[in-house]
Amino acid sequence: MTSTGKGVTVCAKVCPAYNTHVYGFDSSLSIPSIFTSSLYTYKLVMTSVFPLLKIGPFNEYPDEYSSVDAADALRNSKVLVIGAGGLGCEILKNLALTGFKSIEVIDMDTIDISNLNRQFLFRESDVGRPKAEVAAEFIRQRIRDPSLSIVPFFGKIQDKPLEYYKQFTVVICGLDSVEARRWINATLVGLVDEELNNLIPLVDGGTEGFRGQARVILPTLTSCYECSLDMLSTKQTYPVCTIANTPRLPEHCIEWANALEWPVHFSGLKFDADNPEHLDWMYEASLKRAKLFNIKGVTRSLTLGVVKNIIPAIAATNAIVAASCCNEVFKIVTNSNPILNNYMMYSGDDSIFTYTFSHTKKKDCSVCGNTAKTTIAQKWWTLQDFISQLSKNQEIQMKRPSLTTSTQQLYLRAPEALEEATRGNLIKKLSDLIEPMEEILVTDPSLPISLKVRVHFEGPEEKPDTISALMSDV
Amino acid sequence: MTSKELKYDRQLRLWANSGQSNLESSHVCLINASTSGSEALKNLILPGIGSFTIVDDHLVTDDDISSGFFLNEDDLGKPIAPAMTSKLQELNRDVKGNSVERSVERLVQDVGVNGQFWSQFNVVILTKRHYTSNNTVGRLKEILWDLNIPLLLVDNIGFYGYLHVIAKEINVIETHPEFLIDLRLDDPWPELTSHVNSINLDNLDDTDHAHVPYVVILIKALQTWKSEHQNLPPQTYAQKKQFKAEYVQALSRDMMNEVNFEEASSNAWRASQTSSIPEHIEEILTTVSSMPPATYLSSTFWLFIKALQGFLANNHGKLPLSGVLPDMTADTPNYISIQNIYRDKARRDQQLFANEINSILATSQSETDLLVSVPSLVPSESIQSFCKNCRFLYTTKGSKQNFNKDMEESLNNSSEDNSVLPIYFAMLAFNDFKEKFNHDPTLDDLQMIAASVDNQIYKKTLKEILIHHSKQYHNVASFMGGIVGQETLKLVTRQYKALDNLFVYDGVHSVSEKWKI
Fold first, then answer.
1. Which residues of chain B are within 8 Å of residue A301 when distances are taken between CB atoms?
2. With bands split at pLDDT 50, 70 and 90, how would you rate the model's confidence at B373?
3. DSSP state of B403
4. Mean pLDDT throughout B327-353?
5. Three-class secondary structure of residue B515 per DSSP
6. What pLDDT is stored for residue B121 in this prediction?
7. CATH T-level topology, domain A373-473
8. Could you tell me where the DSSP H helices lie in B368-504?
């Protein structure tokens, strides 16, 4: 049972023992026998949670709610935690201490020294080991509850078959990757059928410095991750002409070394920011460039920040956002109190401020909507121009899009033969390839989404020969 | 990069080395080893606070283990302060942990110990794991108030929590505003004016014309405007509109394609900004005027404000320049030369400001025979930071009260289920009941407790607390531990604006609010 915020109740799966009234303990404060089992630790965990399962004045389903069902749901639910980093460590601890017994955790990363200022399940001696495994091990060793199962998976979420995701009651994400969030969001939306079976709530948290957000997504019912893609802050990018010709900031010099010089000097070798020799080279090259132009401020730390696109992070903000997310998971599973509908923003850099609101579903959302998005293209754009604009579009953000229409393949990235066959289209004018408002299907190998786009043409037929056109980096 | 720089990289990007060194020389005290308290300490130990001390004379119970991560089965029945200290200590070997197995009641009663014991802390956090009487809390408030040490009162019951910061005074120089930009378009100094005048837009070829920094464009446009408008900047909406269209955009050869003119146009509003002193800075300056030397000499913040007063008197009432120039479309030499003009001016202002400080210190040392220790040397980094941030300084005075009249009035008017204020009063009422009857209230006591306030939401909120009365619900304890962690970090790094002064969280509706008492 899950509240949709409109009084609709769905997803019996969340509360499997929904109709079994076996142990009635609402009226009594004493702990029923199920909580005083031979498993000492199990009892321990419940003492701080037990009172929360009683029916309170804000309960949305007073006629249907039972504490026993809530306790059973908590014990029988299966929670998937995606990410065992700053948020993930907090989430695992929170779930384990609020009565959840069956947890799986997925993370593809290994522990880095810069994680230790906030990822409290890791020690210096763990550097290099898989995060998911070390985190699960630490929680088990600290809590020592034989009824608590934490299964780690060191790998990508994309490695698991769709069937795998169906077993979970709730999925909770503590990720720093937009791509992974889009993938799990689209996957969970895709699992829901017309009778709303397999509706698995997704709780998502994110932080940056003193700020963060927590949200609840009920796939197909409420606004999904893709619906709010345009709320993401855009990554700082610099025009190529600035980087190449008129650098002014230390960042411009670092970008020059990173984007233009590295490929020239080390053709074929991928830059690895975690390799000290690579970073040294990058720093020296940036510094040399800065000196040439009299620009001050290139440091090793700034170099690292720019090339890795580092986002500041502290334990305190992670604690706030993870606790909000886990409180929502607790409410979703037990139904003891209303769940967040559906977005809470948090900001702590100027006093403390939270803003809770209902983000609305987008009709033309490429994941949960059903209408095509309309996008504008200049009549003179080549297919290549159009593709690079698509990748930058806030609501689309596909890195390697392939495009087809109902009648033809415009451009395909793979397989190789089709890539070769369609490559020629890239230099053709888009307005010659398709009709105005014709539907284009856009896909990207990294996302389980196909996006429908209609193109509205405007502007001159021929590319204008102007300064701004020369200066833009289309 | 050193291993410390690597370990703390993600936080140094927020508060830099200055904040880190303040953090590393700080000592925080936690009274009552609750779950929210251990979570708060975790958030301070990980980033490397200097040291922490846990004050608690109780033994570890089932409930402590069931809800807290920094205790386990092995600790059951043992003294909680050392047990929790040892688990927290593991988080960071750079941090020193201490435990004091004494009750806070005894510590505040023992007058002899007060001065030394409490003055070692930068922040004291009091949580409600064990009941602390109103009398003890009151005594602690007085002691810390006199020592000017912030006291953070934290409580959480069920889905609710609050943090109340009781601090005599909080002053912040590095508030981290979004922009530190101060372009002084309305009042360019001679070097800037002569640079602008040396550029003749008409003589430039198209490429150079499209690379003139917008600061130069706006100063030129403003010069023309002022010469035609009694030396006044555009003021009314109509004037600003006219300035943008006829004085800024009109200078462009092709508004569609000259990005620098587009930037000038979208920044045209800056030309109407005056470089006069912001109102809140005027207020701070008024405060220092009535301060005796002993007061302003005992605080770097107020010493700097006193110096700022002198600086303004000698510099036509203009604040020191921040020297921060935003990026703007320009070729490299054009940008660097104008950036140097801003930086040089900022450096000169810092020097003049330093002279003001030195003259205050010299006068005070020779003329008075003060009981305060006068700083003999102020680091140049502090001066730079102050001058850079002087338009955004922050100071506030706190209160020892638990609530104020306005809050009482709004309580009576609460009408929505998600009103947050009733939560705070309901938690205070819970506490008062315990003070009076020496045990927690139950649902049976609802009518009696609710009777004092005639408001249905208040009653409903009280009921929620009495039913979901868990004091150690981990999620809310951890949420409050995060809030306390953040606020303590702000207080000890002396950066960012801290909570002023009451924050209440409603985990039922996932909302929060704050009040100034």
1. 1, 5, 9, 12-13
2. low
3. -
4. 96
5. strand
6. 97
7. 3.10.290
8. 380-389, 405-412, 421-437, 446-450, 456-467, 474-493
Q: Which helix (H) or strand (E) holds A416?
A: helix A416-423
Q: Which of B357, B348, B351 is nearest to B304 (CA)?
A: B357
| CATH number, domain A72-230+314-357, options 3.40.50.720, 3.90.226.10, 1.10.3720.10, 2.160.10.10 | 3.40.50.720
Backbone dihedral angles phi then psi of residue A451, each to the nearest 5 degrees: -105, 135
Q: What is the mean pLDDT of each run of 10 residues along chain A (474 residues)?
A: 36 33 35 44 66 94 92 94 98 96 97 95 96 97 92 96 96 94 94 92 98 97 94 83 94 96 92 91 97 96 94 97 98 96 96 97 88 87 90 82 90 89 92 90 82 88 64 43
Q: Please give the helix or strand (H or E) that residue A403 lies within, else none.
A: strand A402-405
Q: Which residues of A are catalytic?
A: 241
- DSSP-assigned states of every residue in A142-172: HH--TT-EEEEEES-GGGS-HHHHTT-SEEE
- Name residue A68's beta-bridge partners: none
Q: Alpha helices of B76-176 — where are they, by DSSP H?
A: 80-89, 104-109, 111-119, 134-147
Among A353-357, B176-180, B225-229, where is mean pLDDT lowest?
B176-180
Span A240-307: which CATH code?
A: 1.10.10.520
- Residue A439 to chain B, least CA–CA distance (Å): 31
A395 vs B240, residue with greater confidence: B240
pLDDT tens digits for range B283-293 = 999 999 999 98
ipTM of the complex in this document: 0.95
Chain A interface includes B476 (CB < 8 A)? yes
- Chain A nearest-CA distance from B434, in A, is 19
Residue that has been written with the tokens 């090793």 in this structure = A300
Q: Do B508 and A312 touch (CB under 8 A)?
A: no
How many residues can be counted in chain A? 474
Residue B57: what residue type? Answer: D
CB B34 within 8 A of CB B153: no
B47–A117 CB contact, under 8 Å: yes
d(CA A441, CA B250): 45
Q: Indicate the pairing of strand A202-208 with strand A170-174.
A: parallel
Exposure letters B134-168 (e unless 16+ CB within 10 A, then b) = eebbebbbebbbeeebbbbbbbbbbbbbbbbbbbb
Share of chain B above pLDDT 70, in %: 97
* SS3 at position A427: helix
SS3 for A234-271 is CCCCCCHHHHHCCCCCHHHHHHHHHHHHHHHHCCCCCC
* H, E, C per residue of A320-367: HHHHHHHHHHHHHHHCCCCCCCCEEEEECCECCEEEEECCCCCCCCCC
CA distance A48 to B129: 13
Instruction: Provide the residue ranges of all domains of chain A, joining segments of one domain with +.
Output: 2-54, 72-230+314-357, 240-307, 373-473
Shortest Cα distance from A412 to chain B (angstroms)? 34
Q: What percent of chain B stands above pLDDT 90?
A: 85
